Amino acid sequence: MHVLPYLVAAYVFLTGCYGLATSRNLIHAVGCLAVCQSSTYVLLLAVGYRDGATAPVFSDLQPGSRPVVDPVVQALTLTDIVVGATVTALLLALVLQIAKRHGTVDPDELRELRG
Predict the structure, then answer these.
(1) Theoretical Cys-Cys bridge with 16: which of 36, 57, 78, 105, CB 3.0 to 4.6 Å?
(2) What is the dihedral angle through the alpha carbons of 33, 35, 37, 42, rounded to the nearest 10 degrees?
(3) Distance between CA 87 and CA 62 in Å, rounded?
(4) What is the pLDDT of residues 60-78, one digit of tens each?
């Protein structure tokens, strides 16, 4: 089993978390959160990958003749991409409304939102 895709997923996730923790801008924070989510794409595809496997959609394959890639993991990755794009769009819309109402996207300057 290859370890490289898992290391890449961990590196991308930690890079996004570092950017999220050090962000002084809400738009930058949303972008870093999207980077964190993109590490799950790499992780899911690494889980479903098999050496020498083919796509399971070919009709000339006899069952058990050669290995195929797991299509469920690919479907989960596509679902993850759609959900990630939707969450990113929603968060950017919220940041836009915060910028309109409060005139800033710096989280430290948003005193009215603290309890």
Answers:
(1) 36
(2) -170
(3) 41
(4) 767 777 787 888 888 999 9
